[in-house]
Amino acid sequence: MARTVSRRTVNALFGATPLALGVAGLVGFSPGGRAAAAPPKAVISEEASAAVAQMGKTLSADQFSFQARTLRAYVGPDGQPLHIAHLIKVTVRRPDRLLIEVSGDDGSHKLIYNGKTVVLFGVETKQYASIPVPNTIQDMMKEVMGRRGVDFPLVDFLTDNPGKSFLLGITSGHQVNTVTIDGVPVRHLLFVQPPGIELELWLEKNDQALPRRLIVTYRDLPGQPSYIAEFSDWNFSIHPADADFEFTAPADAKQVELKPANAAAPARPKGAKP
């Protein structure tokens, strides 16, 4: 799936506060069959390729958690550029457990995956949908993203092979320089994905190569909007229990149906607030 700034919010289910788990735009794997011409051979520098490969190895760990503060530009009703912010908390236990908690300008939402079903819960609206899904994180994401049209935050970093996912569609990449973020030396990398997408990725300059910052800029869209993510609180020493990935509906919560994307309510008009 190509990276894109557009997103289909599930407003038919969650009303004025739609369930939208972050921002589309970081989707490096294809959730459905994709027939396309072979891309040109990527020209990626050795140091950039090695850094992303090391990041992928680190993020293939059996279990970990992290946080990300994100900021996305979008076009308001009058054409003016506006921004929406989220705090995203992610807990991963491979191969079949995932918890995503999102709070931000459009409310609070959760995705809870226990290896058999995924629950999408709107905290303020107290509405939730439960969907039977495959028993791996990546296959679950293909089902929920590809067939149900729900967006995942920072999905490249959660796939079976994060390094490969991030580089899918990339045609060039190199290291810009080395900078310091919160006292930690990091590599500032720049990648290009046609047509018109630039990705800047800051990875720690060490054996873990953890992501510290990501900026995606859409050069071919009006106003050249961007998506910014600042990563923190990486923890590879967690031991989440099965119970951490189970959903107990509040007494006043209402279960609703999440239909396939092609049967769901139409997306909001272009320029509408997310």
Describe what this molecule looks like in 3D.
The chain is 12% helix and 38% strand. The protein has four helices and 13 strands. Mean pLDDT is 82; it is low at 4-37 and 263-274. Strand 3 (81-93) and strand 4 form a beta hairpin. The longest helix has 13 residues, at 46-58. The protein has helices at residues 11-14, 46-58, 137-147, 162-167, and strands spanning 43-44, 63-75, 81-93, 97-104, 107-113, 117-122, 127-132, 172-181, 184-193, 197-204, 211-218, 226-235, 254-255. The radius of gyration is 18 Å and the shape is globular. It is mostly beta strands and 274 residues long. The two termini are 21 Å apart. It has one domain (17-29, 43-157, 167-249): Lipoprotein localisation LolA/LolB/LppX (outer membrane lipoprotein receptor (LolB), chain A).
Strand content: 35-45%
CATH hierarchy class name: Mainly Beta
Gap from first CA to last CA = 21 Å
What is the tally of beta strands? 13
Count helical runs.
4
Structural class: mainly beta
CATH-defined superfamily: Lipoprotein localisation LolA/LolB/LppX
Whole-number mean pLDDT: 82
Write down the Rg.
18 Å
Q: In the CATH scheme, what's the topology name?
A: outer membrane lipoprotein receptor (LolB), chain A
User: Overall 3D geometry?
Assistant: globular
Helix content: 10-25%
Number of domains: 1
Which strand order spans the largest sheet, edge to edge or round the barrel?
1-8-9-10-11-12-2-3-4-5-6-7-13
